[in-house]
Amino acid sequence: MNRSYRRCLNLFILAAGLFASVCQAESARSGSGFQGESRFDRHPVQARLVLNKSDPLAGGPFTAAIVLQMDDHWHTYWEFSGDAGLPTKLEWQLPQGVEAGPLQWAGPTRYTESGDLTVFGYADQVVLLTPLTVDGDAARSHDVDLTVRVSWLVCAEICIPGDTTLSVGLDQLTSDHVDADLIDDARQHLIQPWTAADDARVSLAATVRVTDAGHLDVVVELESPDVGGGLPDLYPTEPAGTYVEENARQAAATGARVQFRVVPYAGESQPTAMDVVVAVADAQGQIQYRRTEIELTPSSSVDLFATDYSQNESERSLWVYLLMALVGGMILNLMPCVLPVISLKVMSLVSQAGEAPERIRRHGIAFCAGVVTTFLLLAFVVIAIKSTGELIGWGFQFQSPLFVIGLASLVFVLGLSLFGVLSVRLPGETGRLGVMAEQKGIAGSFANGILATILATPCTAPFLGTALGFAFSQSAFTTLAIFSVTGFGMALPYALLAARPGWVRWLPAPGPWMEYFKQSMAFLLMATTVWLLWVLGRQLGMEAVVWTTAFFLCLAAASTMVGQWIDLRSTTRRRRLIWGSAILLVIISYRLLIHPLLLDPRPLAAHVQNEAGQWADFDRHEVEDLIGQGRIVFIDFTADWCWTCKVNERVVLADKQVQDAFAAADVALIKADWTHREPDITKMLHAFGRPGVPLYVIFAGGTGDDPIILPEVITPGLVTAAIDEAAARFQNQ
Q1: 0.85 exceeded by the pTM?
Q2: How far apart are CA 691 and CA 469, in angstroms?
Q3: CA-based angle 334:338:343, to the nearest 5?
Q4: pLDDT for the residue numbered 311
Q5: Domains plus CATH for the chain?
């Protein structure tokens, strides 16, 4: 439930409570305050009316004060109450010849309600002043009564409406109705206009940004030498046709940072300015309130989401993108993501070197079918999610901790199988065993194709990023075509081997070296498991890694039970008992160790900076401001599960030559971490026509148009040359 909705609901409930209170109370109101019967023994607010003159009929203006005395822990509300509440209201009933001026509000204080609602109001006591004048005729009548109806809302853990009618005769004032000192002291707390002296005492700078919904996000930086006691502070008022929400204040070393949102009502236009009240302490520590105006003109003309940076890409023919998809799919076989599974396939081909060509062909076709089928399934998932209006990117499934845990578990068990921990021997006579083994081998090749494709999804090979980026923005038919061609490109080398089984003879002959190779691949799979655990740690924290590792121990125990305690001589009863025990162990360990992690996932609050601390997290508005200020901005779109990203960061972006170029050009370094689902980063990737990470973009500064886009695989020379080009563009603007 958003704050504006809660605020409307809050006001509705309060209005209903006020109506019920008025209808149910049989009140006998007098100057002593709320006297009506209710379920409360005593109302937490007492009201009284006092004047600053004992003889107001003698002539000249005078001041009336409404004094609201609150019990401890209760507060009433200011003219603009904030995210909730209702302001105190005065309704004067004056005889002819008596006029009341505008209500003069005391400066408010900031309070928090319901955990995250910020309100403005008063505690203990507040004095609200109203200037009054009496003309000569009214003064001579000697029969002038002042009557005012006061209504308020007072809140603590609950909110209670209240109202009273206060009346006093000007020709029969008593000492209880006159308190000039109280009113003089109250004037010291009134909100006054901003003066030139205030300019010298407090610095006020406002930054305004327009949200996607057309609202105004306002951030005001306050600086003052007199800091303390929660000061300085700022209280926004509401321009006509708008309401203000999401008030927040953060203390700073020399001031404070106040932010809020201005939301126009339906059909209303955005305001161009608004009044705010600034609270600051003077040299004696006295709080002073000053009213001033701030402009609501957006601070930057750069709008990253308003530009389609992929327009030049869309001018290419569909056949060009299909060719890119084919080449990119072939290059995926060389990416580190799929190396463990591809190595297993190579070992399988070596073991088949002396076998019948038809069997080699069947295994090759099965592997290719697994690859292409998985790409087709991914295409259908993308099309289905796109039909809901959601933005999606390549490798999106790695943003799910459950997927990462599941894939890590699968790779871990595969590694155990290569170490010989898990092996399933099928009983039966020789001929039948051969047929079953053949069927199992075909299914295994198909499964290897599926696993290779899944492990390939975190990587974006050269040419592939452009092709898939185009696919994600096109019709369902085009998306399906490009995904299919990508899958065929990845499977093409194995399809050629299936078509030419004789080529397998060029591979090394089977021998004892294969056992050592298998053990090496097992270690490679375990290294892949460690990488996936690292990704999980970046998503859910170190505690998740510990509990998932404990789950892996249970997986290893279950695999040992199945692989070592069952052999060809095992009875059916023994097999069922061991398999049942192993499955039960996995289910129980999942429920105890993994399931609690997924009930309340806790993503990282912020990206961990590198050792130099120079990379800032991606924030669309901050990037727009940096570009508008003329800074060169380098954005690294990355994710912890992207191998190519990590290699580029460790080898290229951390290179001394690149770091020196960044420093010399005063480049603002931004890291757009897509490890978790970040809608703004997804929008930016789609704006550049890219399906996923890595992506490297350089804005020359001063304008958000025509940025420099680097390829997926970068070098130090390529990055430094792009920085030099960006600096030259900025100088020529």
Answers
A1: no
A2: 4
A3: 85
A4: 55
A5: 3-178 (2.60.40.1250), 196-299 (2.60.40), 313-400+424-512 (no CATH), 616-731 (3.40.30.10)
